[in-house]
Amino acid sequence: KNDDNINPKDKTIIVIGAGISGLAASKKLKEIGFNVIVLEAQDKVGGRLKTNRSLGIAFDEGASWIHGIDGNPITSLAQEAGMTTFETIDDQAESCYDIGDYSNDKIKITHNSIESEADYVLVTVPLGVLKANTIQFIPALPTVKQTAIQKIGMNCVNKFILTWNTPFWDNTQYIVYTPEIKDKFNYFVNVNKFNPTANALMTFAYADYARLTETMTDAQIINEIMVHLKDIYGNNIPNPTNILRTKWQNNENSFGAYSYTAVGEHTNVDYFSTAHGAYLSGLREADKIIALL
């Protein structure tokens, strides 16, 4: 600590990004008494946490699962919010990487000629944004930080939800399919298990095939998915009435959906690619700033 007499109210902290990591950090810092300014590129908070209800059902475009009920802080948040949870198994994604202040001077943030000034800055943008170098750091980040950013991978997963007038599929939570391309619509989530009136299936595309889907039309996507469903249920099943989809790779606010670790000392990140990992990282970095005072 630099000075035990420092009052947090005299310090301004800018948090870049209002995803779950940035929100967790901002809340904790605000509770301590800091002046907190949150800068967000989108017209909403939550980052890659977004629920689309345009079809009358909940379609989580980003993180959908709480990984591990016991000890997961997101479980407590969900319970406090009165949300209903369902037991499931899956492996979805959300992560946020952060880097803090590395000088003793006031820090200036400039975007579209608008300048903000703070004592500390916490950057919680997605890894894909850092890898794309859309944020210019002056002076440049230390080499160890730059190396870590490049070594940690950023991949893509896209989701697709399709609705029908009447369900024709099995009344099971998952419908598994083994395609020639392993990352191509290899299983379907029966949304009716969570919402009995949804009449919907959700499926996924991963990695290179996920990126390819972003160049395809809705009609092309439906045709590809129906090939798989007809292999399972026969040719007489109807086409869906609606489709919703994500395009995370070409989203300029993320450039991908989730991170994955590579080999090396720079990549020892707990709970990578999960929402609770992002949440905990926000709390961790808030604690680091608090410890500086």
TrEMBL record:
Q: Which organism is it from?
A: Darwinula stevensoni
Classification via InterPro entries: Amino_oxidase, FAD/NAD-bd_sf, Flavin_monoamine_oxidase
Pfam families (UniProt xref): Amino_oxidase
Write the protein's name: Amine oxidase domain-containing protein
Coiled-coil ranges per the record? none
Q: Where is the signal peptide?
A: none
Please name the SUPFAM superfamilies in this protein's record: FAD-linked reductases, C-terminal domain, FAD/NAD(P)-binding domain
- All copies of domain Amine oxidase, residue ranges: 20-93, 102-264
- Taxonomically, which superkingdom? Eukaryota
Matching entries from PANTHER family are given as: FLAVIN MONOAMINE OXIDASE, LYSINE-SPECIFIC HISTONE DEMETHYLASE 2
The root-end lineage is: Eukaryota, Metazoa, Ecdysozoa, Arthropoda, Crustacea
Q: Which GO terms describe its molecular function?
A: oxidoreductase activity
